[in-house]
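pipeline/complex-builder :: batch 7 item 3
reading input block
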Amino acid sequence: MSDWAWALADTARTMPSAQLGDDLDAGSLRLREVVTSYHRRLRAGCAAPDNAIIVGGFRHGLNIVLGALARRGITHLGLEDPGPREHDVIAGRAGLGVVAVPVDDHGLDVARLRASPARAVLVTPAHQCPTGALLSSQRRRDLVAWAQEVDGVIVEDDYDAEFRYDRQPVGSLQGLAPEHVIALGSVSKTLAPAIKIGWMLVPPPLVTQLRQDMRLTSRGVPVLDQFALAALIESGRFDRHLRRMRTLYATRRATLSAAVEAALPKLRLTGLAAGCHALLRLPDDLREAAVVAAAQRRSVRVRGLSDYRVGVGSAGNAAASPLGPALVLGFGNVNESRIRRGVDALAKALTELNATS
Ligand SMILES: Cc1ncc(COP(=O)(O)O)c(C=O)c1O
């Protein structure tokens, strides 16, 4: 039985029915206590249970947060460019203008954010999506200083934080500046996207508004699932599951590196310090779209880095990334032999393209 199935079954058997009516809007106090303690222990956070709100996954939380920021008078949101897909669309639907902020090897370029009209920014500091950069400690300090100066809001997507391979996990921004950071986390990567539970850790002045937004939209997430997640974390099974997955992903990551080194020795693989995806940097004269199509013909599904540009969905804005052509390779749910076969197929696709260009 999977850990999640165990937690659901055990919770369904033991949960007193009186707890079904636990706080609907903010989420059950028990899970809020467990999540804030987990965040303190593993992510160096400092939120109190009263500042936590349980949501139906990261995206649900993001929609709630961006709507609330727009109603508080924020007009522009900074987004990492390249960055997670569709966040520009979500921001637009919330009524926010979008500012594309470049990303380099140290993460978000805070100087460019500073020069923009944005008073809120959405970042993936633990493992930038999709480049894999870690937001450097200097940039973290700069970002917090920016938020303090403009009375701004940093929305932290704590994406991939649990799966760091090269060193100890880096702490969350929330722990550095709790009065300016809204931290969003979910079990999408640690357990499964379909479980649909997440949390937001919110500065005290925003708690009332965000609780109200939860009441006016979904009225919370299923309480059985909330108690099951609390039980899973409290039982120690969640930590054991993370350790197991970290080992599994580390093996897949090593397999990917070795396969690229063997089949594509001239190409560089970057962004591998954490998470379940890496960037394969392509020669400047290759067109990403042609490589993606050639890979697809060999049944290898990859995305080009330009797919992650801010505004890619708008007509005419699918420009190549200034970081150069690259492919985003996911290895989380691909076993070792498929990783090797995939890289070999990719190498053949590249040879074919070189031969025909
Ligand atoms: C950048 C990023 N953040 C967060 C998430 C988790 O989102 P959710 O909890 O809505 O599944 C994902 C999922 O793929 C993601 O790509």
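note: Residues 239-356 form a domain with the Aspartate Aminotransferase, domain 1 fold (CATH 3.90.1150.10).
queue -> next item
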